[in-house]
Structure formats: C-alpha cells, structure tokens
Amino acid sequence: MDLHHLSQLARAALQSGDAAAAQAPGEEWLLLALEAQDAAAQAQALLHLARCDRALHRPGDARGRSELAARLFRHLGDASGEAGALSVLAHSASLAGHHEEAIEAALLGLRLAQLRGDGAALVVALQDLGACHVWARNFDKAAEVLRQAADAANACKPRLSPLGACLWLAMGTLLSYAGEREQRGQLPPLGALEGHLINARHLLPEGDAETQCWWTLMQTLAQIWKGASALAQPELQQALTLLPEQERHWLAALAGWVQAELAWARRLWPQARRAAAQLVTQADAVQHEPLAQLGELIASQIEEQQGQPQRALQRMRALRERETRVRIASLASREEAVQWQLDARRSERDRAQLADEAQRLEKLSMEDPLTGLANRRSFEAHARAQLQAGGVVSLALIDVDHFKQVNDRHSHLVGDQVLSQIARLMRQHVREHDVAARLAGDEFVLLLRGASEEIAQAACRRLDEAVRKHDWTSVSEDLRVSISIGAAQRQDGDTLETLMARSDAAMYAAKRERQGAAPEKVRLSDDGEGEGDSPD
Question: Could you tell me the pTM of the whole model?
C-alpha cells in the first residue's frame, strides 16, 4: 500500500474515533515515509501518531512525536502543520507538568494562527493556551485567555460554539477554589463557578457523552461544595454511567476527585482516603501529573481533617517529591530543546557557509583573478545569451600595443599593473549593463548591449583616449601604453564566433594603422574583411 492510501486509511480511523485502529496504519505510514526520505510525509505521519497517543491518553509518547513533527513542519515552512503539532505538544507537555514548555508551544501556535488569519484555528489556539494556564494554576491568565477564546468563537463566520472555553473556565475555577481552600481553610463564594457551568450547560451538544460526563462531574462537585450532597449523589452516578469505556481516561481521575469530595463532605473518612488514593492512581495511569498532584493535596487535607497530622505531612512530602521530579524532568527537557535549537542553528550556519563558499567559488569561476573583470567563460555565457535574445548589440576586442615590450623593459609585475589599470579604465568608461571581460593575456573585450554603431564608436573612442592620457609614469618611469580596438555590430545570422572574427579583423586593422603612425582612430568593421595579420 502506498503513502497516500495509508494516510487516508489512518486518518479515517482516527476521525471515526477509533484511535487504536488508526495507530497501525499510522506506524506503517511513518515507515514508508522514512524509507522514501519524504520529510513532509514523515511530519504528517508523526502528527497523526501523536494525535493517536493523545486520544489513547499517552501524553509522554504524544509529546515526543509532536515535538519532532513541529520541527519538521517548521523546517518545511508548513505553518498549518506546525500549528497542529504545537497544539498536541502543548497539551501533552501540560499533562506531564512541563508548564513552561506547554505555554511556550501554545503561544507559538497562537502566533501562527494570528499570522494565518484563520478564525477557527485562532479559537483552538486560544483554548490550548487557556488550558495550559489552567493546569499550570495560573488562573487569572487562564480566565483572560479563555474569555478571548469565547469572544473569538462568537466572532467567527459561521459562528463557532464557545463551549470549550466555558468548560475550561469552569475547570480552572474548580482548581482555583481547591487551592484557596488549602490556603485559607474554606471555600470562596461559588457564584463564578455556577455562572460558567450554566453557560456551558446551554451549549452542550446532544450525543456527546464525553463532554456531558465532564460537565456533570464539575456540576456534581459544585453541588457538593454548596452542601447539597443529597443532590450530588445521583448526579455522580449519572456521570459514572457516561464515563468513556476506554480502559484509561482522564475523566476517571476527575471522577475520583468528585468521589473523594463527596466522602469528605459526608465525613466518611475511609472512603475519602481510598477515593483520594484512587485519584492519584488513575491520574498516573493516564500520565496526568496535575491531577495526580491534586490527588496528593486532597489526600493530605482529608488526613488533616480526620485529625491525622503525621499522615497529612507524609502526603505533603509525597506532593513535594512529585513536584521536584517534574521540575527536574522539565529542566532536562528544556536543555534538550535548547541543544536542538543550537544544533539547528549550527546546521543553518553550516548551510549558509556552504552557500557562501559555493557563491565564492562560482564568482571565482566567472571572474578574472588579476583584473576582477569577467573571464572568458563568463563573457561567452553573457554574449551567447544576448545574441540569442536578439536586438542591437556590438562587440569590441581590445589588445594592448607592444605588451611584450612592457613586460621585457619594465618587468612582469609592471605588466600586471598595466592590465589592472586598463581594466579599471574599462569599468569607468562603459555603461552599467555592458560587460567588460579579459579574454587572455593582454586581450580584453567589451559587450555593448543595445549599442548601435554610433554608440559603439563613441565608447571605443572614450576608452582609447582614457588609456592614452592616463599617467603611466606613476606605474613605471618612461612607461607609455596604448591599445588597439576593433568593434563590430551584430548582423542577422551572426554567431558569437563570426561576430568576434569581424571584431578581431577590425582590431588588427586599427593596430596596423597605429603602428603606421596614421591618425589614431577606431575602425568599426561591418563587413568582416580584415587587412591581414600583423605581429603583436
């Protein structure tokens, strides 16, 4: 089965709610993507498997896969895929108790959603961030972000349900009240909690047993705290019937909290102690560190209420030990993330250095090292492209008169300086879009784009005059330098070779004329007829 069919099969199974069935084709999808070295398919398969892990309540596995998927999507420039991976990463890191990492991932996902201008993605990202703040016990910030999520949902077209934001607002308020009770010895007024639960009740969809179970458990806890234990008992039984049939589920841990609170309210201490211990066990089973820590706190409070200070102290010690383990693991995780970022930057820097080196080598391969002009290879590439494009173009070949005598009388070092100075003068006396090149030895060439016969003649005269008037004695005493130039304009049917041949003939004609002490001028050849070769 190919990648496409595997991905469709895996996604269809996950969308139907069967995460266990979606896992096997997802694993095969990833293996095929690795064999094909298809980074995009690898990222998609990893994200799919991370979502399976999240649905199966394996946040540890989901965290590793989603983090790798996010990195791959980022490298590929796939913002939508990266946002999806960051959502899973934020959720799984939050359940592991790595709150800084979770909030960082959620904030990045929110920023991507804002940049994309996707209203639905913005709602999801805000809910992710709000949930991370809830589990991090940063309740004021959680409330602020979740209200933004509700507003964003209402502002979407078509309008989205703000149910998720309302449920998380209620969950955050429950945890907030539990914390206040531990600090102050009593619960605060329950008005805000009841308001969130009422708002959520009006939005509950029919047939969604899991969401109904979540809401009912929170509603039951509110009833217990209001002192209505008689009403809470049937509501708890209803919630237990709605619990998902999965072997492990975070709502089972939440149900353990409600059972512990109900037994506590009735002062049924053995039942309360067992329920609190069960809360910790069930939270550990789904790797839900915030609920496991809550279970230790509830257990400590129950022991204290029962008049067992030593047992309460033991429970608090167990809680501190958990917090320490999570903090150490979180620091190790951040060290790994920093190391990965350093490695990524190093790889990016290495790629940049390779690109710079390739650019440098390419420049060297197209540039004459002595003069800095284009070399023959570069000139021919430009010239052939220009001739193929058509239009008006002229070419001028340049030769230094008696250059061998310059080398013999003044040294090869002076000869090199002469060539460099001529190159500098060529750059000064041609237009920006023209090409000046050194062909070999003392031979140069100008490719004059869009140059008619008159323009070519004028350019050649300017260069010839500049070379004659240059102060060559500054290079070497008694040094005099002149050049011969032969220019030809492109004609229909010209190739680079025929155009250069006519320019060469014109250049040698100019050289003979100069050596014969004729008036110095530049001849433009348009007929390809030379006057014979002459030395130097």
Answer: 0.63
